[in-house]
Amino acid sequence: MTDTGRVVIHTGNGKGKTTAALGTAFRALGHGQKVCVIQFLKGKGKYGEREMAGKTANLDWFICGKGFVFNKENIEEDRLVALEGFALAKEKVESDFYDLVILDEITYLPHYNFLEVEKIIDLIRNKPKRLSIILTGRNADPRLIEIADTVSVIESVKHAYEQGIKARKGIEF
Rounded distance, CA 98 to CA 106, Å? Predict the structure, then answer.
């Protein structure tokens, strides 16, 4: 029996989608596997996980965003950066170098009309058989959910930010 990779989606409005994906990354790294993380939309801030990534063997990390898209001022520039990120994701997936590729916040690309969902579906369908891919982000398209092996929907029950509590280093970033 050949080892077939998985397609996993972490979606929903709750906190923890990226954190769940990174937990799997550390599991894979613990087994000596090669991991690639590509972050869409998130900017270049000092996130703890990125600081750790620079000190971790077998982990490649790419930032393909300028920050979350909350307004429409630079939407075309955001779209171009996202498309460049997708081209990088395609290159990394097709390289067959990695055991796990995490496409963090990729579900936003079709949601914001930056990229057709069919292109993400084609990427998944044509991935090396052994490769596992994790997709994260809110509003995962039903067609992505349909082709995934595992889907978790993370819902928010309560969040500190809603109570006026600011983000804490080591917890939220």
Answer: 18
The CATH number of the domain covering residues in 7-156: 3.40.50.300
Q: Name the one residue in this structure whose structure tokens are 């939407």.
A: 75
Report the predicted TM-score, pTM, of the whole model to 2 decimal places: 0.91
> Do the beta carbons of residue 156 and residue 14 sit within 8 Å?
yes
Residue 94, C-beta contacts closer than 8 angstroms, at least 6 positions apart: 126, 127, 128
What are the φ and ψ backbone dihedral angles of 49, each rounded to 5 degrees? -65, -35
Cβ neighbors of 25 (< 8 A, separation 6 or more) are 35, 37, 59, 100, 102
Q: pLDDT tens digit string along 143-169?
A: 999 999 999 999 999 988 888 888 888
